[in-house]
Amino acid sequence: MDKFMKAAIEEAEKGLKEGGIPIGSALVHQARIIGRGHNRRVQTGSVVLHGEMDALENAGRQPATIYRECTLYTTLSPCPMCTGAILLYGIPKVVVGENKTFMGEEELLRSRGVTVEVLQNLTCIDLMSSFIKASPEL
Length: 138
Description:
Layout: H1 3-17, E1 24-29, E2 32-38, H2 41-44, H3 51-59, H4 64-67, E3 70-76, H5 80-89, E4 93-98, H6 106-111, E5 115-118, H7 122-134
Parallel strand pairs: 3-4, 4-5
Antiparallel strand pairs: 1-2, 1-3
């Protein structure tokens, strides 16, 4: 497995251990992780801290040229909010762990020129499937 998706999965597992939703993300620039994060909505009562948003926040403010050279790895297909951030910052490529448990705005990303690669990674699918079964209210 790709080391960057592995980092995103580690973040998802961290979120689950904290009592949150197991979604993780890593922002990669020139083969180096510059930001990683996980969904922290439950833990912090946040309305915006999805995995992708947390990774972007943890990367700190970057010049536009950096974002335009990044790949965002995420364990789950990006929701409309995270898709908006990807488009806003001009991130050209997104690698999605899985979209079987949730289909986000992949078509919007593609229609705006973003390369979207979906892995259907079994660990990602299992993490979300098990979580949905155990905590359907979330």
